[in-house]
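Let's practice the habit of predicting before peeking. Look at the sequence and jot down your guess about where helices and strands might fall. Then scroll down.
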Amino acid sequence: MFIGKSKYFNIYRFLIKLLALLIFCFFLGSCNKKETQQILTSENQVKAAENAVNINTASVEELEKLPNIGTKLAQRIVEHREKYGSFRRPEHLILVQGISDKRFRQLQNLIKTE
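Done guessing? Here is the structure:
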């Protein structure tokens, strides 16, 4: 049985439209996920900022409660603050010996300078 060119053409046109629709739905779904993740990240940052430890006024004991901050490192933070003055921005905590970029990224939502 022979199928004419017009039927093949209609089938291909249908498949192309279906493929375009699938691609559109995929990108639409991925965009919604990114927006949701951004909203959740913003909410987590607000919650962390409310409970954040002020590194300019915190005692050694308060600093020790932060993750990966032991007694010696907490003491170094306080000594740095006393020697050079208060931290202007949380990022300046990296100036303290023992605070790496990786460690700072773990702490950045848990500390503040105001």
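How did you do? Helices lie at 5-50, 60-64, 71-84, 101-107.
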